[in-house]
Each structure stands twice: as structure tokens, then as C-alpha cells.
Amino acid sequence: MRSHFHLLQIDLPFHDFKFASLCFVTAFIVTMIAIPVIIKLAEKYKLYDLPNERKEHTVPVPTMGGIAVIAGMMMALLLWLPFNYETEQVCFLLSVAVLFCLGIMDDVKDLSARYKFFVQAGIATLMAISGIRITSFEGLFGIYDLPLAAQYTFTLLTIVGVTNAFNLIDGIDGLAGGIGFTSLTTLGIFLTINKDITSALIAFSLAGGIVAFLYFNFNPAKIFLGDTGSLVLGFSIAVLCIRLMQVNTSAALPNAPLFILSLAFIPVFDTIRVFAMRIWRGKSPFEADRTHIHHLLTNAGFSHTFATRLICGLHGFILLEVYWLKDIKGEYILLLLILFMMVVTAVLKNLRLLFKKPVVALSRSFVEN
Q1: Rg (Cα) of the chain, in Å, rounded?
Q2: pLDDT tens digits, residue range 204-253?
């Protein structure tokens, strides 16, 4: 059975998504069952994300929701993934385990950024050694095949950068999960089209867990993803993006590097912008503040729900636009993406000037309708 999506101009053979559906549903069910247990344990052992001047919540909220998400993903992969002991498979699962432990330690003890960076750099290097590498820019800036040293450099920067970008964007209810779910399902679809079923099953398994988590994370959140989940989410998306670049055919995605960049463009752009502004002001790039894109909305009085819907809507719009413009020269698409996000950021930063009074009522009206 096939279905043609005229809007996206692609054919999807539904029979290829049988095991993807099983992975999604399994992860969803396991996560839904596990999260109430995690909430009770977090409350029992006082594992809360405590409010402070830079955080949006005003009361302690249980954290480590990522434990349930990863449990759902792993159960789905255990049941449905054809495990064949390939190097990439083993290294990916080992890296997820390391990040999982790192996230738990960070949620409990609040580890230093330097320590987390070295661990992330180590697992990124491991993935590059296993064969998950950016080997070509496919003509972007006139660059095709990359020398080996450049492959390792760009792979390390991509994995560490995207991992931390999703960790930093996880600042309001539902945001990291919403962006992550959209990116994972998109990755799963195009990995399936390119016949990389193993990688697609990983994407759909994590997506199923994220959907279940979002049920408990939408405002007002009953539990947070925590570094336990956000680190694994960002890492998985980064690795799957690189994998899609490796297996992609020009017929599926003629301008693959730009489309794949769009899957994480908002978190990555926001992280680079915030770090650059902190350095410009003479501060450490790792010094926390309230200048991320979601803070620009909540600082102006918008609710978490409105901010999450708006940013996730922008993410979906970027994905569609880059896909529709896939036949345009890559450099032009990249320029449009940067200009678009600069305009969006400038508008959000000046919302207080546009509204003389707080816009809480407006955002609440939006949510109610």
C-alpha cells in the first residue's frame, strides 16, 4: 500500500513502516506507564528541579523524566530492532548509556559544563570512529568530499553542538520535546525512504517515548525531561542527522545538508546567538541568563503554552520551507534561514516595546481558543 502526499511531493509505502509503528507504540506505552512511577520516586527522594531567578517555574517540579523516555525507547528497540552487532549500533547504544548516566549525575549533583563537554566530546569521537561521520558537504560552498581530519572535526562539532543545543532549549514546558518529536519523525520518514530501517526504528522509538512524555510535560508540567533526557535527545538527533546524510540519495533529498541542518536549526541558532551575545558583553558563554528564544517570549508576558506552540510552529515552518526550496542553491537557503531567524529574534526581543501592557491575557486567550 502506497500513499502520495501532494504537499510534500513524496510517496510513502506504508508497509515499510510496520515495525516503525510497533516501535513507536511500544515506546509510547512503556513511557506512559513509567512516568507516574518516576514522579512518585522523584517526590519520595526529593529529586526536584528547584526554581531560581533564571528558571520559568515557581515551584519545585520532579525531574528525570528522561529515564522513562529512554526506558520506552530501549524496550521498543529490544523487541523490534534487528540487532546485528554492527559497530555503529554498538557504539550508539553504548553512547546513549554513557549520556544517560551523565544526565542522571547532572540532575542530582549539577556537574560542571567542562566535565560534561569532555564526556560528550569523547562519545562524539567514538561515533566518528565507528563510521558515523560527515564525509561530504554535497556541493555546499563548493565543497564535496572532506579530508579525514575535517570529517572528524565537523562530526565532533555537530554531535557536541546539537546535544548541548537541545539541552539548552529545554527551558519551558513542552519545547524540547515538541521540537524533538517533529525532528525525529521527519528523520524516521526519510531514513525509511532511504532504506536505513535500523536508524529509522531508533528515531520512531525515541519519538514514541517523547509523545508520552509530552502528555505529562505540557504546562503546567508534572515532570521535566532533565539532562537525563535532553542530552540523549539531542545526541540521538545529531547522530541520526549524520546518518541520513550518509545514506541519502539525491532523489530523496536533493539538498540534504540544508534540510538536515533545518532539523536542529532553531536550537543551534539560538545557542550560537546566546553564546555570542554573552561573549560580546564580556561574560562567560556558559553563564546562565534569560536571553534564549523562549525567554524572549515569557519575558514579554506570554505563557509557556503560547511560547511552545509558536516556536514549534516556527520549527515546522522552517522544515517545510527548506524542503519546498530544495532545488534552490544551498547557500541561498542558508542565508534565508539565518535572515529569517535574525528577524524573528529581533521581533521577539522587542515585544515589550510593541505592547505597553503585559500580554498574558492575549496568550491565555490564544490557549483557550
Answers
A1: 20
A2: 999 999 999 999 998 788 999 999 999 999 999 999 999 999 999 766 78
Whole-number Å distance between alpha carbons of 366 and 369: 5
Please name the residues in contact with 262: beta carbons below 8 A apart, sequence gap of 6 or more.
Answer: 318, 319, 322, 337
* Measured distance CA(172)–CA(293) in Å, rounded: 10
The SS3 call for residue 1 is: coil
Q: Work out the average pLDDT over 280-287.
A: 86
Grid cell at residue 286? 556558559
* Residues in CB range of 113: below 8 A, 6 or more apart: 286
Cβ(194)–Cβ(248) below 8 Å: yes
- The residue with cell 539525491 is 250
pTM here is: 0.91
Q: What angle do CA 361, 362, 365 make, to 5 degrees?
A: 85
Distance CA 47, CA 277 (A): 33
Q: Which three cell numbers stand for residue 285?
A: 558563554
Give 62's strand partners. 48
Residue with cell 515557581: 58
Nearest CA among 183, 141, 200, 188 for reference residue 267: 183
Q: What is the DSSP string of 264-311?
A: THHHHHHHHHHHHHHHHTTS-TTS--S-SHHHHHHHTT--HHHHHHHH
What is the rounded CA–CA span in Å between residue 139 and residue 67?
Answer: 40
The whole-angstrom distance between residue 139's C-alpha and the CA centroid of its chain comes to 26
Residues 256 and 322: their CA atoms lie apart, in Å, by 10
Say how far apart CA 125 and CA 136 lie, in whole Å. 18
Question: What span, in angstroms and rounded, lies between the C-alpha atoms of 352 and 365?
Answer: 18
Residue 45 burial by CB count (10 A; 0-12/13-18/19+): exposed, middle or buried? exposed
**Per-residue CA distances from 196 to 12, 17, 93, 247 (Å):** 14, 12, 17, 7
